[in-house]
């Protein structure tokens, strides 16, 4: 599974030592970064549970209907906003579009008496080191319930509407070059042996509608989804800090906060002698379409799903395999 996340990690490169930038510019860019991710995070969190059958049938049917499997894939993300934030730290992404990977194990149970089914998904990766340079961690979890508007038969398709909840949390940590500093109020905020972590998180209520129809060993399907999400994104830096050539003290901390306030940019959530951080909260709607086809071999189903994000024109692809009866 580590190989999936290497796709995202290998694009990050460390720039030259002795890098310096303006702290106010950093705070402007983290605000933009958070706003851009607000449109993409609910889209990435919706990966998984896009089974080909719009409704799998009742658990108390003959046979009982349930399934378990796994899926993985990626969504794209325009790297401009992320790249601007990384530039402030002397880091860079040499491509215009990033791939944000995701994977889950997932299962579904048919309803007991009424025509509905329930799905759950979970994927996690504890912090993984990529050589001596990068670290990534990742958590995706969710659940949904779908109600059959049309249960389908030989002629008619299956149609369902559903509601669910998704949670996604991930971060990327990278060491910074020596001599990195930020200018503020005519003085230099110096970082010694720093490490920066870029993090993002979203919680979303997800509504979707889906249609499917089986033809012998294939099942094409399509659907629409809408998510209302509570998201945040930003950075944190761990470093022994110097300000104006001396180790930082409480008076310096207040001076830096006043400087950012005067510049009219987002303030720091944390500023201490051992580091600083800034996390920006955002909320809003996201809308997507998805479609695909499954190959059905006995109780095994192999899914290929494509996704499109109406909010920022990004897309996603997932592959899934499951046992389902």
Ranges where pLDDT stays below 50 over 5 or more residues in a row are 1-11
Give me the CATH fold name: Lipocalin
Structural class: alpha+beta
Strand elements, count: 16
- Mean pLDDT value: 88
H/E series: HEEHEHEEEEEEEEEHEEEE
Q: What distance separates the N and C termini?
A: 27 Å
Gross morphology: elongated
Measured by DSSP, the beta-strand proportion falls in over 45%
What spatial order of strands do you see in the largest sheet? 3-5-6-7-8-10-11-14-15-16
Q: Which bin fits the share of residues in helices?
A: 10-25%
What is the secondary structure topology, with strand pairs?
Layout: H1 2-9, E1 13-14, E2 20-22, H2 23-45, E3 66-78, H3 80-87, E4 91-92, E5 97-110, E6 116-130, E7 134-150, E8 158-175, E9 181-184, E10 187-212, E11 218-243, E12 246-247, H4 250-263, E13 270-272, E14 275-297, E15 300-309, E16 315-324
